[in-house]
Specification:
Blueprint lengths: L2 E4 L4 E4 L13 E3 L21 E8 L9 E6 L5 E6 L2 E7 L5 E4 L10 E8 L25 E6 L2 E11 L5 E12 L5 E11 L5 E4 L5 E3 L4 E11 L12 E9 L5 E9 L4 E3 L5 E3 L2 E2 L2 E5 L13 H14 L4 E4 L6 H10 L2 E5 L9 H18 L5 E5 L9 H14 L5 E2 L14 E4 L13 E5 L13 H19 L6 E4 L5 E2 L10 E2 L12 H7 L10 E3 L16 E5 L3 E6 L2 E6 L14 E3 L15 E7 L2 E8 L7 E6 L3 E2 L6 E9 L12 E7 L2 E4 L4 E2 L4 E8 L4 E8 L6 E7 L1
Parallel strand pairs: 22-23, 22-29, 23-24, 24-25, 25-26, 27-28, 28-29, 40-47
Antiparallel strand pairs: 1-10, 2-3, 2-4, 4-9, 5-8, 5-10, 6-7, 6-9, 11-12, 12-16, 13-14, 13-15, 13-17, 17-18, 19-20, 20-21, 30-31, 32-33, 33-36, 34-35, 34-37, 37-38, 39-41, 41-45, 42-44, 42-46, 43-45, 46-47
Helix pairs in contact: 1-2, 3-4, 5-6
Length: 734
């Protein structure tokens, strides 16, 4: 039988290329996912993670082999590695974003101790995508995704693909493509059983299968199994209904079970049509989204499943987007799994950034296309494959090859190729375009999807001057409003969701690209409130005034006009206790946004030099009822230090992490962006703080991360800063 065992614990790591003669005592103990170096959140050189390191693990087989083959499965490692077992090289891989496996079987000591060594090269090598020229993001280093030990019989399933069709008809079609491999030296005969089931009920249905199948030694075959399902519940962004397909492999004529594989899928129809629109389940849907880099402050890309899921939650539920682009590489399966679960559409693309390398380099690119699609084609959230190196020049031979390969592996999804010039050879199914015109250009081809806008055209720090933060938000508002009014544009995906670390050729002087609508800790700038204000008020009311409400934070002083991001029907603005007026959304400037910003003019009389400034209060109304309000203090002196973990409970597995947000706020709980105080932290209990401690706070908000150890218990974190009461947070480890 198949066994999949987590293999993340009990690794040893040394930041050097060493041999077997180096004793274990020279290494440090680590648990995967692992970054080869921790950093401050900014002001560091990418050369610091570019070195060859060595991972070592000594282990005995956790269960007897019993004639099975044993594989070591890596979700990813950055960026090139060689794998050795008991002194024998058993595998190698070039590329940092796709999975790979090593067959350990023939070199295992089945009764004694085994020595596993991974020599990991994390240098930015010109022979491996995305490198060869400059790249606007950091790759970091380490075995930064999960590793598993997999036992399978010599005859086993290597891939299960689910395809659905006619999902809008009363009876939908389901096709399972089951690839079976015979790694034994003997001819094998087998039978299969297959079924599909609803993950939310007991509903289950068998799929017709052929009789016994004979497979020669060292060969594989793919079986095509088809069935129908009456009136399936459709997967959609509002109701992401999931099903499960299961295949059982039996030896001989159907006696003992030797393998079992299952996967989740959804019934849904996703089309980019020639009228320019995107349709989900036959209904037009305007795509509104943001790009996401997989990297985090301090530990780069080595984020566990909880943080991956949190990013999907932020993009869907906090920001209100319906699509995310995984710029510029395949991202963690735990992120994609959660996109399936919560109904967040995905544009997934291959690794790269502008540069196309030589023939061998292009060979890795084709392998990346294959690995990405084979890994991810059962995800209902993915609606398009990006098969062109982001913003590269035309290369007909390469991109015909990537498109042909994608269509062969997955004929159910369209391809896109992200470019930044309109006069580009259009080989894909959707013309995907990075539009930095500060508007939306008229499409040359349809379907046309905007895959980046804004970003480097107007970088904005969360502690910038108020009017720059407002303009940043309004630029996103103008472009989303424009695309919503263009029937021949399928949607727009802004650059980008979160600030990110970058090379010296890009970004700010501290090597952060401040392009996000949120900062590097996933905390909001004003532009984030523009997106969240497009959420339906039936989900939750949103209201945020884009102001510090002070006299001296705009170039000419004052607060006129006042911009408010809200999904309310109307708002009341109070200056102190006096009602200034009731206001409606600015539909004249933003006729296509579901919920335009409010622009309140005439406040200059209340913000003249020498006049006494009083508090601001804004109240939002839905159907005539007040549902949300915000107070902003006119004398924003720090009132409290807040400390808030995203999660109150973590798994005591040595891997689990949660974000720990800290803010300095006024007495109404508003962030004070000019609170530049030092905050220090103490932690008690079986967990570690990841991040700068003490922290020189700029912008009034930041975050550390709490990483669980392997013991259950209570973790208490205390935060202190001068002149404010201590803040305390507790987390349970189970």
């Amino acid at each position: 039988m198949r066994t999949n065992l987590p293999f993340n614990h009990d690794w040893l790591f040394i930041a050097a290329d060493v041999g077997d003669e180096t004793p274990d005592s020279a290494f440090e103990s680590v648990i995967l996912p692992h970054t080869n170096k921790l950093f401050p959140h900014h002001n560091f050189d990418n050369l610091e993670y570019q070195f060859i390191s060595t991972y070592r693990k000594r282990f005995k087989l956790p269960e007897p082999r019993a004639g099975r083959r044993i594989f070591l499965d890596f979700d990813a490692a950055m960026i090139a590695c060689e794998v050795f077992l008991n002194g024998v090289k058993v595998g190698e891989h070039e590329g940092g974003y796709t999975p790979f496996s090593c067959d350990l079987t023939d070199y295992l000591d089945e009764k004694g101790e085994n020595r596993l060594v991974v020599r990991l090269d994390s240098r930015e090598r010109a022979d491996i995508p995305p490198f060869g020229f400059v790249v606007d993001y950091l790759t970091f280093g380490g075995i930064y995704r999960d590793v598993r030990l997999r036992y399978v019989e010599p005859l086993h399933i290597t891939n299960l693909c689910v395809r659905t069709a006619n999902v809008l008809a009363p009876t939908a079609d389901v096709t399972l493509l089951v690839t079976v491999q015979n790694q034994s030296p003997q001819t094998q005969t087998f039978t299969v059983e297959a079924s599909i089931s609803d993950t939310t009920s007991d509903s289950k249905q068998a799929i017709p299968v052929p009789g016994a199948v004979t497979l020669n030694p060292l060969e594989e075959t793919t079986l095509t199994l088809t069935e129908t399902w009456d009136r399936p519940a459709l997967w959609s962004i509002d109701d992401p209904h999931l099903y499960r397909a299961e295949v059982v492999l039996r030896s001989g004529a159907g006696s003992s079970q030797i393998d079992r594989v299952d996967t989740r899928f959804g019934f849904r129809e996703a089309e980019f049509r020639k009228d320019g629109r995107f349709y989900l389940n036959g209904q037009p849907l305007k795509l509104i989204g943001l790009n996401r880099h997989q990297t985090y402050p301090y530990f780069g890309a080595a984020a566990p499943a909880r943080l991956q899921r949190k990013d999907a939650e932020i993009i869907k539920h906090e920001l209100g987007c319906n699509i995310v682009r995984t710029s510029h590489y395949p991202q963690a399966t735990s992120f994609l799994d959660h996109c399936d679960q919560i109904g967040l559409l995905v544009f997934e693309e291959i690794p790269g950034w502008q540069h196309i390398g030589d023939r061998d380099w292009q060979g890795i690119t084709l392998r990346d296309v294959e690995a990405m699609i084979l890994r991810d084609r059962n995800h209902p959230s993915i609606i398009i494959w990006g098969v062109r190196i982001n913003e590269s020049q035309d290369d007909e031979a390469l991109y015909r090859a990537t498109n042909d390969l994608a269509h062969k592996l997955d004929p159910t999804r369209p391809t896109g190729g992200v470019r930044y010039f309109l006069d580009s050879q259009f080989l894909e199914d959707v013309f995907t375009y990075n539009d930095f015109s500060n508007t939306i250009v008229e499409p040359k081809y349809v379907p046309h999807l905007v895959t980046e806008f804004s970003g480097h055209m107007f970088p904005t720090k969360s502690f910038d001057q108020e009017e720059r933060l407002i303009e940043h938000a309004l630029r996103h508002a103008r472009i989303q409003d424009k695309q919503l009014g263009m029937s021949n544009v399928a949607g727009a995906i802004g650059w980008c969701a979160f600030d990110y670390n970058t090379h010296k050729e890009f970004g700010s002087g501290d090597r952060i690209c401040y392009h996000g609508v949120m900062d590097i800790w996933r905390l909001p700038k004003y532009a984030a409130y523009l997106y969240s204000s497009q959420i339906s008020p039936s989900v939750r009311p949103v209201l945020q005034a884009a102001t510090i409400w002070s006299m001296g934070d705009r170039s000419a002083g004052g607060n006129d006009p006042l911009v408010v991001f809200s999904n309310c029907d109307e708002i009341d603005v109070f200056i102190g206790n006096d009602l200034f007026g009731r206001f409606q959304p600015d539909r004249e400037s933003f006729p296509n946004l579901p919920h335009p910003p409010f622009q309140v003019n005439g406040l200059a009389i209340f913000s003249t030099w020498g006049r006494r400034l009083v508090d601001l209060r804004v109240v939002g109304y839905l159907d005539g009822q007040g549902v949300i309000e915000q107070h902003i203090e006119s004398s924003p002196i720090p009132s409290a230090l807040e400390l808030r973990p995203d999660d109150a409970v973590l798994d005591a597995d040595g891997m689990d992490m949660t974000r720990l947000v800290f803010r300095i706020v006024d007495r109404y709980g508003n962030r004070l962006p000019f609170a530049t105080q030092v905050v220090s932290f103490e932690i008690d209990g079986p967990a570690d703080l990841i991040g700068e401690n003490p922290f020189a706070l700029v912008g009034g908000q930041a975050a550390l991360y709490v990483r669980a150890r392997c013991q259950p218990g209570t973790v208490t974190v205390r935060a202190r800063t001068p002149r404010l009461p201590e803040a305390v947070a507790t987390i349970e480890l189970r």
